[in-house]
Amino acid sequence: MLKMSFDFPVPLSSLPPGGVGRVVAVHGGRGPSLRLRRLGVRPGALVRVATVGGWGGPVLVEVDGCQVALGRGLARHILVEPCGPSPRDGH
């Protein structure tokens, strides 16, 4: 079993499928930050990476019971504290 231990926030795009993180900051302009907040991706929210598209494709995350597809570039602007794999993954 892979244990993730980080002493600092990492970009959401760096979490593997099944990884869970708590959002600590969203960097970027006002427009993207507002859009993410409306989708539930805001500081304090728990997000779970469902899948990561190959070749720079989108990152599909679950937040507040909904699935949201984020471009890889946008996912790099979301900083999270990794919490480990999702309990639903059985890890």
UniProtKB/TrEMBL annotation:
Q: Entry's Pfam families?
A: FeoA (PF04023)
UniProt keyword Repressor, yes or no? no
The superkingdom of the source organism is Bacteria
Its Gene Ontology molecular function terms? transition metal ion binding
Q: Indicate the segments forming the Ferrous iron transporter FeoA-like domain, all copies.
A: 10-82
Q: Which UniProt keywords apply?
A: Iron
Does Cytoplasm count among this protein's keywords? no
User: What InterPro entries does the entry give?
Assistant: Fe-transptr_FeoA-like, FeoA-like, FeoA_core_dom, Transcriptional_repressor_C
Q: Would you tell me the protein name for this molecule?
A: Fe2+ transport system protein A
